[in-house]
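## retry 2 of 3
previous attempt timed out at serialization; input unchanged, resubmitting
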Amino acid sequence: MNEFDLIREYFSWPSEDSDVVLGVGDDAAVVNVPTDQQLVMSTDTLIEGVHFSAQADPRDIAHKALAVNLSDIAAMGGQAKCFTLALSLPEIDKRWLGEFSSSLNELAGRYQVSLVGGDTTRGALSITINVIGLVESGSALKRSGASPGDGIYVSNTIGSAAYAWWQLNNDQKPSEENLERLHRPTPQLELGRALNGLASACIDISDGLEQDLGHILDCSNVGAIIELEDLPLDEELSDHVKRTSDYSIALCGGDDYELCFSMPKKRREWLLKRTRELNVRTTRIGEITKSLGMEIKGYSNNSSSYQHFK
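## retry succeeded, writing output
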């Protein structure tokens, strides 16, 4: 099987999006863009031995590779439109490719995002996905709009995926629910779109709440006070914190792919209304301040969030 046969067999899915004029199979894709919309784009790479093990399920790898990019589109308040895939493989393994392709196609279908092209090459296993989304012109959520007095919120619970990873590395058995959150995160696309016109700043939590909220503070030139006891933790992680008094997993663990955002007080009722409609939990965990820096009340641990280069 050569490169072109591989693409035809595993990655040539028909698109139901009428805006996709030309997709997989040509030199480049052609996609219509409405005149009142702007493009939002995100790229992430997953590498064997860094982001997943050699024994990882190809279905989980595919899901996460696309989901983490969709999460970036969510943080911008965008609607995912299409994506490209660059796949480096040490060899052609039809079973692996079949499972990877099936999972990728399933998640793409769930969020109605079309695969429109990419590249395949021989080499160490790595997956690079570039997602392109749309947002109404001038309305994209940014990291730079937070103001003193704004509440700081996160969606659902945080730390669950990181706790599953911690358990795996400490000879403990994570719950199936938390393993699912680690291997197959759910991008908060509906919430991101609902936050347009409400949130003053937004980011997705990929490298840990401490670090990612810090990006909002730096870009907005503000500070924050975080209330440890207000962090929304699942029951397992909450029990761990009670036993150890250690919040580092929740604050620094990463891999949540939930949204962290700031919101003026006057818009809180609108937030509650929209999140009830979406059946999404959001929790106020602190407040934006004039004083620069981040104060986490009651936290003195020296743990730090993930960084690719130190």
